[in-house]
Structure formats: C-alpha cells, structure tokens
Amino acid sequence: MGKTFAIIEGGVTTPKGFKAGGLHCGLKKTDRNDLGVIVCDVPAAAAAVYTTNLFQAAPLQVTRESLAEEGKLRAMLVNSGNANACTGKQGEDDARTMRSELAEALGVPKHQVAVASTGVIGELLRMDRVSAGIAKLPSALAADERGAEEFSQAILTTDLVKKTSCVRVLVDGQDVTIAGAAKGSGMIHPNMATMLGFVTTDAEISPSLLQELLREATNVTFNMITVDGDTSTNDMLVAMASGLAGNKELTREHPDFAAFADGLRYVCEVLAKAIARDGEGATKLIETTIVGAKSDDDAQAIAKTIIGSSLVKSAAFGADANWGRIIAAIGRAGRPVNVHTVDIKLGDISVLQQSRPVPFDEDAALVYLKGDTVAIRVDLNDGSGQAVAWGCDLTYDYVRINAAYRT
C-alpha cells in the first residue's frame, strides 16, 4: 500500500496561517538563537502531551493552564539555554511573565499563548534578557522558510542538527500541510517526552480530536525512542491547527481521516528518529523491530528494552555482533516470551534461529555494523504483536558531553 501523503520541503511556517522567528537574547553563552516563537494568524486548535517526570518544569504548568481555557493557541514561545525547572514560585512567576509579555507584544489573549523551556535545570531565568528578547520577537516573525529556520535554531541545546519534517495530504480535494520541528539529544527516554516538539497544520480539526491523534502518534513514535534512559523535567509535544486549508472539519468518519492521521504520524516519526540519531555523541541509529509478540504492548516494551540496553548500545558502537546482549535484554523486559522460538537478525544477517545460534560471517557482520544504521529484527514467533523502536549507540563522547554539561 502506497503513502497517502506527499513528502515535501518545508517547516513550521509552510502550513497556511503560520509565522515563526527566533533570535539571541543572551541565555546561551554563544551567539546562537535562544528565543523562538510560532504565531498563528487565527486562534488555532491546539493539543499537547507532556513528560511523565514528577518534577515538571514551570512552563508545562503554564501551557496546561492556557490550553485548559478553550483548547486554542495563537502563539508558542520557547527559550533554550535554561529549563526553568525546579525553580519554585519564582520560576512559575517567570513563566507566566513570559506568557503575558508575549501576549501583550502580539496583541492576543494570554491564555492563547503557550510556553516551553529547555536547558540547564535549577537556575533562574535572566528575565531582563528574556523580556528584552520578547519585545523584539514580533519584528523577527516571517511566514517563509527563514522564519522556520530561525525558530528551529532557537530551540536547540546540545543538538548537532535541526530536526524538521513536512508532508502534504489531500483532504476534501484541498491541500492540507502538516509540518514539525523538534529538539532533543540527551535526556531522551520519552513517556512522554524528554524532548520538545512542535507540529503545525492548516487542517480544520477540533482540539479534542487533535489531542487524540497527537497522543496516538506519540505512542508509536516519540514514546518509542531512547538515548540514555532519562526522562526530562521539561519536555512536551504541542500541535496547532489553523483550519485555513479549506477542508471540511476532520472527524474519524471523514473519508480522508486515515490519510491525515498517517501524515501526522509520519511527521512525528521523522522527528523522533532524528532525535534518536542525534543522541549526544552518537555515531549511528539503532532501529529495533519486534514481530511475533503476544501483543503490540509486549512488543513495544521489548523493543524499548533492547534499544535502551547500555550493553546493546555499546556493542553497536564497537561494531560487535554480540547477539547475546540482545537476547538478554529480551529476557529481562518483563513480558511473556517463548524462550525456545526466538529469531534474531542484524540487518539481513541471521544470528539466532529458534533460540539457537547459527553460523554467520563475522567479517560481513563487522562491515554491516560499521554503518550509520543498525537494524535489529526479532521474531518471537509467539503471536501477532509488533512494534518498532529507535535509539543510538553509546559512545565516549556521550560521557564527555554530560560530564561537563554545566561547565
């Protein structure tokens, strides 16, 4: 079955009705952008999913408050360089001040502004710098590729590359665009989320259905990646739908609903895989596919256990075809497995059949594992459940980066 959408060049400003921008306000020691905004010309249907970490940063509370009013947003404000997490009442006041100042600068209701932050935990924001930057944001807005680029740069921390995706779907004969931008490199073990993600679309859709779709897409994309097993205090995925594409309102009964859902899921998957590939110090993406599990839920748990294993990640870095680490991870995932029927492949190289080792070409395996993507396929031969998860290798650079994160 072919794709129900077209992959196109674009960013968060490509859907109708959106502008974006970014600038350097002084939160980062370098001159890279550290303050960004996405603005919609009209109140956009909005939805969000949040980290499950109990120590949730102040911006998450403010965003929840905004969305609780009517499920609509006009603007999404983001700073990098400071997480505004574990900063007490002052941090909450600062997040609300950010919301109010941007609302005033744009001339929109404050409950239609959401806030996100990323960076070092436990330090108060330099609000003099943030406020000065917010005042300049309206003049930094652009509805073209430049605005999307400046925003994408503003949300990065230890990321090496920006992460974007864009597709076009036909709904009621109208072109509907879905685009996204994300950041994430370390503290990545979503549930949800340990990253920041922003999705824009010009589809006509209700906030409640957008929320359902965003959660469903998250469960099979962002919640299926890991870099280091750490779930952050800050991170979330926010979607905004302007409704300006001209389609009839999407419902689950709409004939083009599945195409739109596929497009949204694809955008989220591209962003999620980009985060996994850009893990701090990473040299390769690890993709683990599980089939033949008793249920999809079991397959998801097993896949995430494999990609989260420090030993599997280290073996991938060292190009070592050590399938014993994979089967050990399967066995400790806490899900039912027939221990006599497991097959494992590294790429196209079979290393285990019916839970017994099979001879394979070590030299060919070495060449394969030295590539920039390692595909692990596990067939449990015990049901119809399946899942895919993504991670990265564990390298010397990961330790170096995180040993000196504050300095």
Topology overview:
Blueprint: E1 6-7, E2 18-23, E3 35-50, H1 58-70, E4 72-80, H2 88-106, E5 113-118, H3 127-140, H4 145-154, E6 163-171, E7 174-183, E8 196-201, H5 207-220, E9 236-241, H6 257-277, E10 285-293, H7 296-308, H8 310-317, H9 323-331, E11 343-346, E12 349-353, E13 356-357, H10 362-369, E14 373-379, E15 385-392, H11 396-403
Parallel strand pairs: 4-5, 8-9, 10-14
Antiparallel strand pairs: 1-6, 2-3, 3-4, 3-9, 6-7, 7-8, 10-15, 11-12, 11-14, 12-13
Helix pairs in contact: 1-2, 2-3, 5-6, 7-9
Site (Involved in the stabilization of negative charge on the oxyanion by the formation of the oxyanion hole): 118-119
GO biological process, one term: ornithine biosynthetic process
EC number: 2.3.1.35, 2.3.1.1
In short:
Its EC number is 2.3.1.35, 2.3.1.1. With 407 residues, the chain is an alpha+beta fold.
Characterise the protein shown here.
It is an enzyme of class 2 (transferase). This protein folds into two domains: 272 residues, 4-Layer Sandwich (L-amino peptidase D-ALA esterase/amidase); 119 residues, ArgJ beta chain, C-terminal domain (Ubiquitin-like (UB roll)). The protein is built from eleven helices and 15 strands. The strands form two sheets. Strands 1, 2, 3, 4, 5, 6, 7, 8 and 9 form a nine-stranded mixed sheet that branches. Strand 8, helix 5 and strand 9 form a beta-alpha-beta unit. Helix 2 packs parallel to helix 3. About 2% of the residues have low confidence.
